[in-house]
Amino acid sequence: MESRMKNKTRWLSRITLVGAVATALVATACSKESSDPTKDDKAPPGTLAVAEAARADSPLDATPDPQGENVYYIAFNTMADEDGLATVRVPAIFKVSAAGGPSVKLHEGAPLVSPSSISISDDGQTLFIADGAAESAPGEDDGSLFSMGIGGGAPTALSGTQGYQPRGIEVMGDTVWFTGKKDGKAALFKSGLGGGQVSEVASGALFTDPSGVAVTKKGVAYVVDSGGAASAQGGASVIKVEAGVAEVVMEGLGVGHPAGAALTADESTLLVSGLDVGRGTDVVYKIELASKNMSSITDVIGDFRESAGLHRARGKNVFAWADSNANGTGTVYKLEL
After folding, report:
1. Cα-atom radius of gyration of the chain, to the nearest Å?
2. How far apart are alpha carbons 92 and 105 in whole angstroms?
3. Global pTM?
């Protein structure tokens, strides 16, 4: 692992910013035509392009719809409390077009308390949200998974998922995969789209503080664990779970909160939303799963310090990446590989 980290090379990428929007403020942005005229509009293979940025208040996670046409994200609205004497931060779910335009608030407030991760169903009609502090029962704030339609409305708790302190979430087919803790034990879990019985997929000594999760079509999961117990170098680790067996595939990473993970469309490469170990600034790690070679993406995001969630559109290499403090209030970027 030490030699792998020493030989780590930066993955150079051309990044273009097409538009920027905000929940209350339209940010200045350049168009694709205003980028370097000596380069083609189409990014070369193996590069990353930013096609959209949405400004929000502390966005923690974002997911594109299956076609990559819209981005849904978790952020917060700041408002006066009931007495008007103080301000409170209220969680909300937003939608923004990947082509630009204003953000639309789909829901705000209860039953959400501290949502950390969002995913979307394969048909693009239902959002799934992990909230580790939502009230699972009167007086109990140990979390739940929620679902809500893409048109908005109050989220509905998924039956059976209460009390699991869910952190990261990924929907694949008819299964909701999520990380969390139950009775103090950290683990990877799964449930059906409609809730019901929750199954423990894997737990044990490798799992300390699991967060982001990405899953292949065959049910192989990759979990980012920021607890560091599995890492001989300290820092976060990436844990592969196949047929219930967990093994570390990468270690010594710096990650933010919540850590994000997403697989490329061909499932050969894992992207992890992280922090540069030396500088503490944002980076997206690109891990080739067969060779375990790792490179870094820092263009555009390299001066930010609050790296957060990361998800991919179903059928293409279109990603949504969040930083909870970029550009002052936080920014959600659409990334194209």
Report:
1. 19
2. 7
3. 0.84
